[in-house]
Amino acid sequence: MSSDSRILVLPPFDATASFKYTESPNPQWKLGDGMPLNSPQARQWKEDEKLGWKTWDMDEMPKPARYKLLTSAVGPRPIAFVSTLSADGIPNLAPFSYFSMVAHDPPIVSISFSLPPNSPKDTRENIRITKEFTVNLISEPWIEAANACAVDAPLEIDEWVVSGLTKEPSDVVKPPRVKESAVSLECELFHFQDICPPGSDLVTNTLVLGLIKKAHIRNAVLAQGGNSVDPEKLRPVARFGGQTYARLGDGFELPRPAWKNVESIVHGLMGEPNGHSSS
Ligand SMILES: Cc1cc2nc3c(=O)[nH]c(=O)nc-3n(C[C@H](O)[C@H](O)[C@H](O)COP(=O)(O)O)c2cc1C
């Protein structure tokens, strides 16, 4: 089925659906329980083991097949919507989902550029030369505008015009941030690492680490207390494989186990004399 024919039968986007907290999948779970078979979905998950696994050897896969497989398997990925300026001051805006937070001390994000032969990404080039960029996180109400910026337009085309989004001056870097974005990070280049396949000197990717100098968060998406972001209000959009985007479903909280509270249970599970079982 082509993506066009699929679009014809899809229900409209439900803008009213929003994130809410639920219980975790197995609230009665105890240390050592593994995967409880207490729902039809969990039992099916167990049943599916009988289908076995399909395994790919990365070295034997054509590049497009590897891209298709890995981008659909490793997700959902957050998307950095990156604003840069060329050496001549020409603005550029593009989305990148090989993106993550790397550290908070120092505060660092990573972006990775895939570089098809003879097709350097303008964003990469701008960061290399100017050493500055802003990362803007994308929310549901303006995802189409962000997606349009992935157009393979010539260098002189300004993606801001293509998107219709609004420039907001940054505080400490020259590239503007996106006014429609609820979370914008002003970044300075921290590290620029070209990547070549083993045994080759052809640069196929570049990993950029950005040091966050300023974080701008819309007041309207802040959680109670004003020191963190409320996922229900943020309405973030993530990337899967192909042309697929994902929105946030429900959330649940799970406390991280503290060793002092679980130590004797774990020893019990290991069959040691001073332990006791968790039930
Ligand atoms: C949602 C989305 C995520 C993308 N992620 C990446 C990525 O992580 N790395 C990359 O090199 N290109 C990625 N692309 C493609 C770039 O956005 C595209 O090549 C763009 O034209 C680059 O713009 P530039 O040349 O102005 O930098 C992505 C495209 C979309 C729509």
Automatic annotation (TrEMBL):
Residues 74-229 form the Flavin reductase like domain. One of its GO terms (molecular function) is FMN binding. Its cofactor is FMN. SUPFAM superfamilies: FMN-binding split barrel (SSF50475). Keywords: Flavoprotein, FMN. InterPro entries: Flavin_Rdtase-like_dom, Split_barrel_FMN-bd. The keyword rRNA-binding does not apply. Belongs to the flavoredoxin family. This is Flavin reductase like domain-containing protein. It comes from Neolentinus lepideus HHB14362 ss-1. The lineage of its organism: Eukaryota, Fungi, Dikarya, Basidiomycota, Agaricomycotina.
